[in-house]
Design goal:
Layout lengths: L2 H11 L3 H13 L4 H14 L3 H16 L11 H6 L13 H20 L2 H9 L16 H10 L3 H9 L6
Length: 171
């Protein structure tokens, strides 16, 4: 599959519940789920309108995915981590855009090509009504807010991911 098609398809597929479940399961088996979880947590961060809550979420993102020896440390350039160090006095919505883009590139370059060749992808494609291994579009989309709305309001958003992904909370 051409890289441009993978990028387009992954952007669309990450909003599809069947794809998200299958990709998460694959990443967990590969011991590489931190990229997906971080990408999703940045999406939650960007949806938060209240800056004080974003500051709290930003600190949780840093402590969970970027801090040295953190539980789900992602592999991103050191200079990017340095720019995002805590403490935060402000939390602009685009604060983690570069981090999210780096993680997305990691998933496109590493996890997605292996996933597309896996038996898990075959099951996901079947669930999505697809008969091809190369496309993930034209499928019902998942609004991340559907399963996060209640917890997000209480700033306890990781509980939703814990239930959704059946993994231990990172913080």
């Amino acid at each position: 599959m051409p890289r441009s098609a993978m990028v387009r398809d992954l952007k669309e597929a990450l909003r599809n519940q069947a794809f998200l479940w299958g990709f998460k399961e694959f990443c967990m088996k590969e011991f590489n789920v931190e990229n997906l979880l971080c990408w999703l947590d940045v999406e939650v961060y960007k949806e938060e309108a209240d800056e004080q809550k974003r500051i709290t979420l930003a600190e949780k993102l840093y402590n969970t995915y970027l801090k040295s020896d953190c539980p789900l440390q992602v592999n991103v350039p050191t200079q990017l981590v340095g720019v995002l160090e805590v403490p935060y006095k402000a939390a602009p919505i685009d604060m983690f855009d570069e981090l999210q883009a780096a993680i997305f590139r990691n998933m496109v370059a590493d996890s997605l090509p292996r996933f597309v060749k896996s038996p898990q992808y075959e099951r996901v494609a079947e669930l999505m009504g697809k008969r091809t291994r190369t496309r993930c579009d034209n499928v019902p989309l998942l609004n991340h807010g559907d399963f996060l709305a209640e917890e997000k309001q209480s700033s306890n958003y990781i509980k939703s991911y814990t239930n959704f992904f059946k993994v231990q909370p990172a913080f």
